Amino acid sequence: MKKILSLAIIAMMLMAMASPFALAEETTVAGTPRSQTLVVEGLDGVISNPGQSNAYMTGTNFSRGLHQLVYSNLWEMDTIKGEQIPDLAAEMPIPLNDDYTSFSIKLTEGIKWSDGEDFDAEDVVFTFNELLRLQDSLPSGASLAQIVESVEYVDKYELIINTVDSRPRLSEDLGVTVWGNGYRIIPEHYWKDHDLTTDMHEFPIGTGPYTLTDYDANGYWFLYTLREDAEFSDIGVLTGKVPKPQYVLFTAYGTEERKTMAMLNNEVDILCDISPEAWEVLMAGNPNVACWLPEYPYGCFDDPCERGMMINCDVEPFNQIGVRWAMALSLDIVQVSMDTFSGQMRVSPLCMPPTTFMNEAFHQEMRQQLIDYTWEDGYQPFDKDYALKLQETLVSEGYDIVADMTEEELVDLFGIGWWKYDTAKAEELMIEAGCERDAEGFWCYNGERISFEIICPSGFETQSERLSYACQSQWYEFGFDVTVQASEASFYNSADDTGDYTVGSYWPSCGVMKDLYSQLRGWHTDYYTPSGTVTSGSPARFQSERLDAILDEMAPLPSSDERTYELSKEALMVMADEAAWLPMFGTSKLVPTNSTYWTNYPDSENPYNGPWWWWSCFKFIMVEFEPAAV
Question: How far apart are CA 615 and CA 610, in angstroms?
Answer without folding.
Answer: 10
